[in-house]
Amino acid sequence: MYYLLGHRLWDKPIRRSVKEQVAYNTYILTLDGDVDFKPEAVLLLVDLMRRNFGVGAACGRIHPEGNGKDMVSG
């Protein structure tokens, strides 16, 4: 994914320094299809990653609700 985003960025007709700044401030967020989150959680995650450059990935706790038979639609 990062390769594709980088390729798209580097083809743009803008200065190299601007491209580097855009790349530096680009984040990729991936979730499972059944994940529900609040937008504030994403802001907190990005803030954490900006404060600590050693953070490359983060994972939150999953708290399933209900049981298997309630989650299956049919």
Provide the succession of SSEs. Answer: HHHH
Taking all Cα atoms into account, the compactness measure Rg is 17 Å
End-to-end Cα distance? 34 Å
Number of domains: 1
Q: Could you tell me the mean pLDDT?
A: 76
Question: Unreliable stretches, pLDDT < 50, 5 or more residues?
Answer: none
Number of E-state strands: 0
> What is the beta-strand fraction?
under 5%
Helix content: 40-55%
**How many H/I helical runs?**
4
Shape: elongated
The profile of the biggest β sheet is: none
Structural class: mainly alpha
Keywords:
47% helix; single chain; mainly alpha; 74 residues; elongated
Structure described in brief:
The chain is 47% helix and 0% strand. By secondary structure, it is mainly α.
Task: Describe the protein's architecture and organization.
This protein has 74 residues and is an all-alpha fold. It has one domain (2-61). Helices cover 47% and strands 0% of the residues. The longest helix is centred in the middle third of the chain and has 13 residues, at 39-51.
